[in-house]
Design goal:
The protein has 101 residues and is mainly β. It has a domain at 15-76. Helices cover 0% and strands 31% of the residues. It contains no helices and 5 strands. The chain has strands at 15-18, 30-37, 48-55, 61-69, 75-76. It has a 5-stranded antiparallel β-sheet with strand order 4-3-2-1-5, with no helix packed on it. A hairpin with a 5-residue loop joins strand 3 (48-55) and strand 4. The radius of gyration is 22 Å and the shape is elongated.
Length: 101
């Protein structure tokens, strides 16, 4: 049997694509940004609890979740989607109208 390497540590801010390789619950893959790896919670060998934000296609957080996953099946995203900056609305300029007379 070839030696297996441990997956890289899960750190806050890391972004992952979760598919069925991470857990059978991800029939439809999702992207998450890690808040915390719950290493203080006991799990089966090869599994982990994470707290994370589920991200939409633009990189905005849509839900906060606690997930039970296999870190070896998590796909690290090298380029994380960054939230889209929304343009700030500037108030309309007021023009004063002088009464003639």
């Amino acid at each position: 049997m070839p030696p297996t390497s441990d997956p890289p540590p899960i750190r806050p801010g890391d972004v992952f694509r979760l598919t069925r390789a991470a857990s059978p619950q991800f029939v439809t893959p999702i992207t998450v940004r890690v808040i915390r790896h719950r290493s203080d919670w006991s799990t089966y060998q090869g599994w982990a609890w994470i707290e994370c934000y589920q991200l939409d296609d633009r990189g905005d957080a849509t839900a906060r979740r606690e997930l039970y996953v296999m870190p070896a099946g998590m796909i690290r995203q090298t380029e994380s989607p960054s939230p889209v900056r929304r343009k700030r609305r500037t108030p309309a300029r007021r023009t004063s109208v002088r009464a003639e007379g």
